[in-house]
Amino acid sequence: RILKEEVTILPGDTLITECNYDSTRRKQTTFGGIGTEEEMCLAFMTYYPRVNLSVCTSTPPMETIFETLGIQDIYNKEKIGRILQGRLEVNEEDETELASALRNGSASSEVTEVLLSHMLRAVVVKAPEKFLNTSLYKILLKKTTWEESQAAELLQEKVVFGRHSTSCRTREDARVLEQPQAVSYPRFSALKSPVEQCGARKQVQDQQVNDNNRLPLVKFLHRVVMEEADKYVMLWTPRKDDII
Length: 244
What we know:
alpha+beta; about 25% helix
């Protein structure tokens, strides 16, 4: 999308990237990730003048997930925190040996699928009793977790509008800030496009009919869906009192 007019971004301004997914037809939990069957909200922005910034990410704090699901405690908190923040130390000796093995052909360099959700297998619950020794991955995979509509709605609200942990990196893959920053969802009034009443609908509403032959006013909500073969489908939803 190209803006009709350039917009100046100032310190303190907020850019929001929001993606909508419909996974209601799926029979199992959809996790975030980089695969085509996973969810990830990704956007590229063109701006000037250029600054030394490559990527910025935001994620809801794990404490938000724990609180909503009723998880009170987990094992290896510090290690899990480093894993989820990508702050694990690299074993240079092991990496050097692997690089050498790849060069001489004694190790395979086959591409394997990366599932970010599998990191949640390392998050094992310590309390409460009903989740004891169960990974967060399995808890989120269970249908019973999502059958509690109140908990599911609360989780969705907090994940979207709650605090997020943000992190940015330079083009040299260095962190802009050593520690991720927690930010709140900005408060603002969304602009609303003016809705003009359909001329045909207004004409029907204004028409004068005989009291002995009065028909209900036609107020269909409709939309047009275009197809690739230059065809279109009109979908409409009448009110209950419009059906005779």
